[in-house]
């Protein structure tokens, strides 16, 4: 079997630059990460132009998230079987074509269908990237640095998406938030074909469990749909959908225990590091997505910032994250160990969210948003590479694509869960304050305060879980 670290005829270290390969992988991943957030600021313009209702507008986001979150696990496993380079380049091409279709959309149906196609391409691209990074850098020190670079791109991409969405929409129009992907995608695709080392994969016969694939994909898609639609669906409908999703997951687990060639070997979950890190990530990402989206709403609806000003206000976060991840993360993890760095980062995230929970209706950006934003940025810069390294160190080489897909899946589930829970709490509390006679701004700020405080509790839960489950045993876990 050919791996990403070498080809049968030519060693990777002589023929290919691993760091150039990392740049190409990061470029592909950045496109999908940006697109998950770039549309948020442009939503009012999209609604006005295409005539979306308030409920229908949510599907501009949901149509992307459902296939993206639902297909990550399957795409990761298929990458192990058919070749990760093949999966990555195919996903990149599909994502680029779908972006153009989004950019030229003239109707609601066309935009939603193209967004769903983007979600498929994004899942194919994102699912295998982390596994490819791990395979490219087997040596612990280099792997830590590579993961720091990849994590910095991912973290910065979320905040940059908010900025670019506002800038492109205000300077040109909303169509360009999608059309900008065409030149980036073409260059990244051509570079990937030329730079990335070939890998054949294990072959579909080693794990083509189609019934299992159908069960887990259906379960994940239904889970994401239920979470992101929980604010609009009735409680009884949510309960029924949740039960169906659980039944599909149970059927998948039974299938994997009995299948001769399972899609997802249950041995993967025997790894304490892999399972624990994914559980911690769900809570941590739920917290950070709460900050990113509800924080942007606070700046717009309470402080009165416009689209471009809001995007600019959030730029310090990706700058701090990028500088710290690229300059200090790998060395810090190498010195203190991933476990200690992760805990320190989570402490800062808890503190940042607690401070945001005090942001008042008459607050200011400099006093009430920037300081906790910087705490969150420093905390995330420390925690994310450490958590990623711990998760991937718990996977076997032949399962790195699957582990990568799983890690990306829990990001989507965590983000969707955080948005659903925190936005619902904020809206409900704001309505209660309005009914009690509070002004619109005060009620809105009060709802956001509650959401931030609950996010601080969620982050504290991630801290406790990490401290217990990922605790070092017989040495300094995760130290490179």
From TrEMBL:
<dbReference type="GO" id="GO:0046677">
    <property type="term" value="P:response to antibiotic"/>
</dbReference>
<feature type="transmembrane region" description="Helical">
    <location>
        <begin position="450"/>
        <end position="470"/>
    </location>
</feature>
<dbReference type="InterPro" id="IPR020846">
    <property type="entry name" value="MFS_dom"/>
</dbReference>
<dbReference type="InterPro" id="IPR011701">
    <property type="entry name" value="MFS"/>
</dbReference>
<feature type="transmembrane region" description="Helical">
    <location>
        <begin position="234"/>
        <end position="254"/>
    </location>
</feature>
<keyword id="KW-1133">Transmembrane helix</keyword>
<keyword id="KW-0812">Transmembrane</keyword>
<feature type="transmembrane region" description="Helical">
    <location>
        <begin position="412"/>
        <end position="430"/>
    </location>
</feature>
<feature type="transmembrane region" description="Helical">
    <location>
        <begin position="21"/>
        <end position="46"/>
    </location>
</feature>
<feature type="transmembrane region" description="Helical">
    <location>
        <begin position="149"/>
        <end position="168"/>
    </location>
</feature>
<feature type="transmembrane region" description="Helical">
    <location>
        <begin position="208"/>
        <end position="228"/>
    </location>
</feature>
<feature type="transmembrane region" description="Helical">
    <location>
        <begin position="369"/>
        <end position="391"/>
    </location>
</feature>
<feature type="transmembrane region" description="Helical">
    <location>
        <begin position="305"/>
        <end position="326"/>
    </location>
</feature>
<feature type="transmembrane region" description="Helical">
    <location>
        <begin position="87"/>
        <end position="106"/>
    </location>
</feature>
<dbReference type="GO" id="GO:0022857">
    <property type="term" value="F:transmembrane transporter activity"/>
</dbReference>
<feature type="transmembrane region" description="Helical">
    <location>
        <begin position="112"/>
        <end position="137"/>
    </location>
</feature>
<protein>
    <submittedName>
        <fullName>MFS transporter</fullName>
    </submittedName>
</protein>
<feature type="transmembrane region" description="Helical">
    <location>
        <begin position="275"/>
        <end position="299"/>
    </location>
</feature>
<dbReference type="InterPro" id="IPR036259">
    <property type="entry name" value="MFS_trans_sf"/>
</dbReference>
<feature type="domain" description="Major facilitator superfamily (MFS) profile">
    <location>
        <begin position="21"/>
        <end position="474"/>
    </location>
</feature>
<keyword id="KW-0813">Transport</keyword>
<feature type="transmembrane region" description="Helical">
    <location>
        <begin position="338"/>
        <end position="357"/>
    </location>
</feature>
<dbReference type="GO" id="GO:0005886">
    <property type="term" value="C:plasma membrane"/>
</dbReference>
<keyword id="KW-0472">Membrane</keyword>
<keyword id="KW-0046">Antibiotic resistance</keyword>
<dbReference type="Pfam" id="PF07690">
    <property type="entry name" value="MFS_1"/>
</dbReference>
<feature type="transmembrane region" description="Helical">
    <location>
        <begin position="174"/>
        <end position="196"/>
    </location>
</feature>
<keyword id="KW-1003">Cell membrane</keyword>
<feature type="transmembrane region" description="Helical">
    <location>
        <begin position="52"/>
        <end position="75"/>
    </location>
</feature>
């Amino acid at each position: 079997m050919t791996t990403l670290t070498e080809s049968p005829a030519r060693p990777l270290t002589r023929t290919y630059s691993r760091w150039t390969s990392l740049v190409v992988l990061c470029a592909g991943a950045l496109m999908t990460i940006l697109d998950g957030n770039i549309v948020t600021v442009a939503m009012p313009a999209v609604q006005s132009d295409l005539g979306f209702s308030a409920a229908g507008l949510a599907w501009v986001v949901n149509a992307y998230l459902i296939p993206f979150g639902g297909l990550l696990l399957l795409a990761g496993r298929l990458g192990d079987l058919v070749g990760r380079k093949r999966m990555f380049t195919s996903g990149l091409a599909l994502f680029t074509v779908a972006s153009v279709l989004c950019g030229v959309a003239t109707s609601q149906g066309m935009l939603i269908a193209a967004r769903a196609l983007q979600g498929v391409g994004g899942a194919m691209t994102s699912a295998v990237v982390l596994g490819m990074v791990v395979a490219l850098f087997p040596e612990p020190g280099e792997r830590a640095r590579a993961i720091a670079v990849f994590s910095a791109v991912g973290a910065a991409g979320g905040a940059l998406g908010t900025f670019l969405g506002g800038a492109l929409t205000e300077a040109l129009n909303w169509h360009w938030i999608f059309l900008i992907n065409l030149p980036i995608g073409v260059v990244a695709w051509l570079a990937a074909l030329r730079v990335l080392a070939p890998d054949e994969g294990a072959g579909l016969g080693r794990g083509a469990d189609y019934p299992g694939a159908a069960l887990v994909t259906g379960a994940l898609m239904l889970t994401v749909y239920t979470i992101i639609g929980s604010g609009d669906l009735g409680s009884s409908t949510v309960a029924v959908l949740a039960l169906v999703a659980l039944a599909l997951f149970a059927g998948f687990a039974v299938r994997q225990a009995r299948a001769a060639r399972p899609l997802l070997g249950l041995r993967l979950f025997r790894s304490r590091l892999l399972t624990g890190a994914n559980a911690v990530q769900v809570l941590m990402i739920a917290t950070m997505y709460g900050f990113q989206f509800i924080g942007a709403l606070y700046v717009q609806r309470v402080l009165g910032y416009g689209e471009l000003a809001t995007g600019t206000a959030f730029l310090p976060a990706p700058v701090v994250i990028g500088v710290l991840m690229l300059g200090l993360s790998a060395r810090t993890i190498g010195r203190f160990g991933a476990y200690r760095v992760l805990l320190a980062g989570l402490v800062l995230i808890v503190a940042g969210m607690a401070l945001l929970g005090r942001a008042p209706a008459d607050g200011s950006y400099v006093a009430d948003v920037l300081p906790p934003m910087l705490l969150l940025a420093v905390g995330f810069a420390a925690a994310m590479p450490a958590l990623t390294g711990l998760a991937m160190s718990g996977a076997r080489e032949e399962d790195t694509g699957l582990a990568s897909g799983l890690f990306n899946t829990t990001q989507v589930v965590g983000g969707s869960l955080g948005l659903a829970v925190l936005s619902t709490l904020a809206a409900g509390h704001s309505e209660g304050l309005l009914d009690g006679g509070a002004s619109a701004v005060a009620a809105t700020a009060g709802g956001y305060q509650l959401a931030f405080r609950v996010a601080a509790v969620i982050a504290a839960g991630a801290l406790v879980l990490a401290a217990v489950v990922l605790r070092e045993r017989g040495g300094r876990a995760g130290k490179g």
